[in-house]
């Protein structure tokens, strides 16, 4: 099949995730081995929408030399942003306020001016929703699922998740010794947006005593009961892992901030839970927020491999004439699914899944248990 492709671009949008550079590496080599030219757009689409702000015009020539040695590096050599949605681009008004402007047509013109025949867009639900929009507007495009949150549907996993879980688990392991030494409750808050995957997997892998996730609204009484029972049995410390998006029964999410052109920023639930557990149990509590530490650092070998497989599959998809699809892990293979399907729903933790059942069998509490009367 002749695709007519001579030049492709790669863009990385939204929060960074370990494994992005492996995608860039594989996409570049797979494309160059087909004789295609490859460029990287800086900071999502800002390299094209605000090219005058960049000394290099907002694009990086992705040569074999430029991508050499980047597989193991965290972050993205292209830069990223969560303030560059071309459909609702934040533009400051004369009175100092911000408005959201649709810059889709302008962006498509920039792609044409730069001789870019197709785009590989690497992102989470936000960036892939933009990708679906650009595809419908006429751009040849393949999506690659990225996020530490693992909340994208139609792929068994996203890259970045394994690295985030591994590091969260390592941190929680360390908190055990200090919690034990001081007979404290330690509440660890982890990222994950509206899904509890990171909290569930890291919490289970480290053997915490309670896990609070957005999918199971919680009450703290059952958690306090367990902590008190443990103390009576001589275990005077307890560790609770709470997802940033967890919600109390009848309550809302804990939002740290909301700015124009950005998704709401979650954060702060760990301190609340620690204070309430201290009040309920009378035991000293501390909160630790792992935050962006989960996005940093070198990807695990699993995320590197997933990134390489996704990047190469994106190029194969273009070569086979696809557009408007997302590469997806469908073990044991990587295949393609329509972008529209992938973004139509968020993949959250099924409350009856075997991991939750396993955790309950281990005695881990989720805050939905009934409490003994009295
Ligand atoms: O989607 C990835 C993620 O790290 C979420 O887990 C978190 O809620 C959000 O991004 C934080 O975004 P920011 O870096 O913009 O604060």
TrEMBL record:
GO cellular component terms, semicolon-separated: 6-phosphofructokinase complex
Record's keyword annotation contains Signal: no
Residues marked Important for substrate specificity (site): 126
Protein residues bound to Mg(2+): 125
Binding site residues for ATP: 15, 83-84, 124-127
Residues annotated as domain Phosphofructokinase: 7-318
Location (main, coarse): cytoplasm
Binding site for substrate: 147-149, 184, 191-193, 244, 286, 292-295
Cofactor section: Mg(2+)
GO terms, molecular function: 6-phosphofructokinase activity; AMP binding; ATP binding; diphosphate-fructose-6-phosphate 1-phosphotransferase activity; fructose-6-phosphate binding; identical protein binding; metal ion binding; monosaccharide binding
GO biological process annotation, one example: fructose 6-phosphate metabolic process
Root EC class: transferase
Active site: 149
Record's catalysed reaction(s): beta-D-fructose 6-phosphate + ATP = beta-D-fructose 1,6-bisphosphate + ADP + H(+)
Biological or metabolic pathway of the protein: Carbohydrate degradation; glycolysis; D-glyceraldehyde 3-phosphate and glycerone phosphate from D-glucose: step 3/4
Quaternary structure note: Homodimer or homotetramer.
Function, as annotated: Catalyzes the phosphorylation of D-fructose 6-phosphate to fructose 1,6-bisphosphate by ATP, the first committing step of glycolysis.
Protein's recorded name: ATP-dependent 6-phosphofructokinase
Originating species: Mycolicibacter kumamotonensis
Designated gene of the protein: pfkA
